[in-house]
Design brief:
By secondary structure, the chain is α+β, with helices and mostly antiparallel strands. It is built from 11 helices and 13 strands.
C-alpha cells in the first residue's frame, strides 16, 4: 500500500477541533495560537523501538496503547490537558501490507483519541524496522504546572495505583515457559504492561494541590531521583508501603514484588509530592477519579548537596539490585 493511501485509509479519524486549521496531508499542520496568556503549551515526545521497548511480534492494539498512553502520562505528570499529537510510524513491509494489523493499530488510537480528547494532526510514515514516535501537545496553566523542581523538605511522596505490575507482565512476554500461579494473575499483569492507564483525569484535578510530579516510566526510585536532583533535596521511601497488586505478590512473592515496584518501569503511574496539609484533599480527588493514592515516603534534607533516594525496609536502609531502567547504560 502506498504511503498516502495508508494514511487516508487508516489514520483519518476523529472530529477535527476548531483549533486545528490544517492537519494531515500538507507539509505542516496548522494550529490556532492560544487565546489565553495564562496557559502554556506542554510538549513531549516518546519513541518505542522494536527490540528495545517491545518485541517485534507485539499485538497492534498493545503497541498503539503503549505508544500514545506513555505520552499522555507525561502530560498527566505536568497537569496538562491533551490537545493534539503527531505520529511517526516506521513499518516493515510485511506490516505495511497487513490491513488487519493496520486496522487494529489505528482503531486503538482512535479509541484513545475519543477517551482522552486528543487529535492526530499529522506525522510521517516510512519503511524500516518497526518503531513508533509520538509527539503530543497539551495545555496547562503556568501557575499550576507540576514541575520537578518544586519539591520541599517535609513533603509527602505519593503514588497512584499499584507499582511493579508492568515489569511483572514483561516476565511473561520474555519467558513463554513462565507458569502462571493463577491465569488471572497473568492476565492482569499482561494487561498492565500492554495497556497502561495514564492518570490524566487525576493529574488535572490534583494539580492545584500537588507540588511536583513525574510519571513512573523507568521505575519509582529512578524517576523520583529526577525530582530530588531538580529540587536539590533527598527522599526516603518505605518499601513496605509500596502499593502492590494481589496478582504481583501472588505470582512472584512479597520480596520480589517489592523489588519490581521500586525499580520496574512502564507502570505509568504518577509519583508526586504534596504538603501534608493537602493529603485529605488529594484523597478526595483520588476517590472522585477512581484512583488509589498511597503515601510511600517523604522529602528530606540533603547532606552536603548529595541528593539521593533512600529505600528503607523495617527502618533499615535496603540496597536494591538495580535502581531502574537506563537508556544507553
Amino acid at each position: 500500500m502506498a504511503e498516502f493511501e495508508l494514511i487516508a485509509q487508516h489514520f483519518t479519524f476523529g472530529h477535527k477541533p476548531e483549533s486545528v486549521v490544517l492537519d494531515k496531508g500538507d507539509d505542516c499542520a496548522l494550529i490556532k495560537p492560544l487565546t489565553s496568556s495564562e496557559k502554556l503549551l506542554a510538549i513531549t515526545t516518546d519513541s518505542l523501538v522494536a527490540g528495545t521497548h517491545f518485541l517485534a511480534d507485539i499485538q497492534p492494539k498493545a503497541l498503539a496503547s503503549r505508544a500514545l498512553n506513555s505520552n499522555l502520562s507525561d502530560l498527566a505528570a505536568m497537569g496538562a490537558t491533551p490537545k493534539w499529537y503527531s505520529l511517526a510510524l516506521t513499518l516493515p513491509k510485511n506490516i505495511a501490507n497487513n490491513q488487519v494489523w493496520l486496522s487494529e493499530f489505528s482503531q486503538q488510537l482512535a479509541a484513545l483519541n475519543e477517551e482522552y480528547g486528543c487529535y492526530l494532526i499529522g506525522g510521517d510514515t516510512t519503511s524500516g524496522p518497526l518503531a513508533v514516535t509520538i509527539s503530543i501537545i497539551g495545555e496547562v496553566e503556568h501557575s499550576q504546572a507540576m514541575l520537578r523542581e518544586n519539591a520541599q523538605v517535609g513533603d509527602l511522596v505519593c503514588v497512584t495505583g499499584s507499582l511493579g505490575d508492568a515489569v511483572g507482565g514483561l516476565q511473561f512476554v520474555l519467558n513463554s515457559d513462565l507458569t502462571a500461579v493463577q491465569p488471572a494473575y497473568k492476565q492482569h499483569l499482561l494487561t498492565r504492561f500492554n495497556h497502561p492507564t495514564p492518570r490524566v483525569a487525576f493529574g488535572l484535578a490534583a494539580k492545584q494541590f500537588v507540588r511536583c510530579a513525574i510519571d513512573v516510566s523507568d521505575g519509582l526510585v529512578a524517576d523520583l531521583s529526577h525530582i530530588v536532583k531538580a529540587s536539590q533535596v533527598s527522599a526516603e521511601i518505605k518499601l513496605s508501603q509500596l502499593p502492590l497488586s494481589d496478582a504481583l505478590v501472588g505470582q512472584f512473592g512479597q520480596m520480589q514484588a517489592i523489588e519490581y515496584a521500586a525499580t520496574g518501569g512502564d507502570d505509568y503511574e504518577l509519583c508526586f509530592t504534596i504538603n501534608p496539609a493537602h493529603l485529605m484533599d488529594i484523597n478526595k480527588i483520588a476517590e472522585q477519579t477512581g484512583v488509589v493514592v498511597t503515601v510511600v515516603g517523604e522529602i528530606t534534607q540533603s547532606e552536603q548537596n548529595n541528593h539521593q533516594v533512600f529505600t528503607l525496609l523495617d527502618g533499615q536502609t535496603q540496597q536494591l539490585t538495580q535502581l531502574g531502567y537506563q537508556h544507553f547504560a
